[in-house]
Write a structure and sequence with these properties.
This protein is an alpha+beta fold. The protein folds into two domains: about 220 residues, Alpha-lytic protease prodomain-like; about 80 residues, 2-Layer Sandwich (Alpha-Beta Plaits). It is built from eleven helices and four strands, in the order ααααααααααβββαβ. Strands 1, 2, 3 and 4 form a four-stranded mixed beta sheet that branches. α3 packs parallel to α8 and α6 packs antiparallel against α8. The chain is elongated, with a radius of gyration of 27 Å. It is found in: Membrane.
């Protein structure tokens, strides 16, 4: 499906290309044809990459979980933006556009790191890793946040300071506007996919509560990254526009500094949340209350302490429940009751992959 989309994009681009070229001139002079090819280049890139990006997202939606869909859409968008920026740098000779192309390559690499984390986190458990590799996703998401902070924010701040110290003469902004417009289209499409995936998971929660309570960084990392990119594109547009309006190239440097600050703030939020996930976050209070009530409803249970829990991956929860059973239970009855209780908990809450029932004397502290 992904290759079919790429072929369709190429066919549409070739049709535009053939229709847009002028008829050969009798003199055999290639000048007009060459100029027409250059004018058609932005349109060809737009048709090809929009079709390919849509195809990749559709394939991911069909064959992958929602979090992977958002990552693939972001990867396709960032790859397309990187190609466009490098093409613009080739035509304009702009070193700033080369730096922007490198920035988009870094964004593309970030999505690959998230896909790597997803794949590694799905490896089966073994004797050396009895609880599996679920936290691989949290580790690689933390690395992505570091890349956004150090490379994205750091390079933007450096470029902004250098631009203020050594302003470059203003040039024709046509290519800048073209690249910013196409980048906004691709990043906007990726952002819509990530936002739809995030909203489907958060339900009626507020945005901030859903972000702090989310256990799947592959969704909110892409969402925040795309939001930062869109906000950065708006700031970049204002920088280019105002610098030409007031004939002051320093304003472009100020815009670059603002973009760097945006990336630093976003990276800080992601670092904080991914650090919390790496250390191990518990299940939410509502789920723990429901599970405690389920345990206490068993006739053989005299008391149950609030469960101890920790997420090993977005859908893998480790649970320890301390339970005081009826003293008249025999060893065989106690074993059977514990096994039944474990089965009921995992049937009611599929994300509880590991549940340990610990018989204990709780006394008067727990009902």
């Amino acid at each position: 499906m992904r290759y079919a989309g790429a072929v369709a994009g190429r066919e549409q681009a070739e049709q535009i290309y053939r229709k847009g070229l002028p008829r050969p001139q009798p003199c055999g002079c290639p000048g007009r044809t060459t100029r027409a090819r250059l004018k058609l280049l932005p349109g060809l890139l737009t048709v090809y990459f929009v079709t390919t990006t849509a195809s990749s997202a559709a394939a991911a939606t069909t064959d992958a979980p929602p979090s992977k869909t958002a990552i693939v859409a972001a990867l396709a968008a960032n790859f397309a933006i990187a190609i466009i920026k490098f093409v613009a740098a080739w035509f304009t000779g702009s070193s700033a556009m080369v730096a922007e192309g490198i920035h988009s390559v870094v964004d593309t690499a970030n999505e690959w790191l998230l896909l790597l984390g997803l794949r590694k986190s799905q490896r089966p458990a073994h004797a050396g890793r009895p609880f599996g590799y679920g936290r691989e996703l949290y580790f690689w998401s933390f690395i992505v946040a570091i890349c956004i902070f150090a490379i994205g924010g750091g390079i933007s701040l450096y470029e902004g300071i250098e631009h203020l110290r050594h302003p470059t003469p203003l040039r024709d902004p046509t290519w800048n506007y073209l690249v910013l417009g196409l980048a906004f289209v691709f990043d906007g499409a990726s952002f819509l996919v990530a936002r739809r995936t995030f909203n489907a998971q958060r339900g009626r929660q507020s945005f901030w509560a859903a972000f702090r309570g989310s256990k799947d960084p592959s969704i909110f990392v892409v969402l925040f990254e795309d939001a930062a990119d869109l906000l950065g594109l708006i700031v970049a547009f204002l920088g280019v526009f105002l610098s030409h309006l007031f004939n002051n190239p320093a304003l472009d440097g100020v815009a670059t500094l603002c973009i760097g600050l945006i990336l630093l703030v976003v990276a800080g939020l992601l670092l904080r949340e991914n650090k919390s996930l790496l250390l191990g976050e518990p299940a939410d209070a509502g789920l723990l209350d429901e599970l405690t009530a389920l345990v206490r409803a068993e006739p053989e249970v005299r008391a149950a302490a609030p469960p101890l829990s920790s997420y090993l991956s977005p859908h893998e929860l480790l649970m320890v429940v301390r339970v005081e059973f009826a003293p008249e239970l025999s060893a065989a009855d106690l074993t059977r009751t514990v096994e039944q209780l474990q089965a009921r908990i995992q049937a009611a809450y599929p994300d509880v992959r590991h549940v340990f029932i610990q018989p204990a004397r709780l006394g008067k502290y727990y009902p």
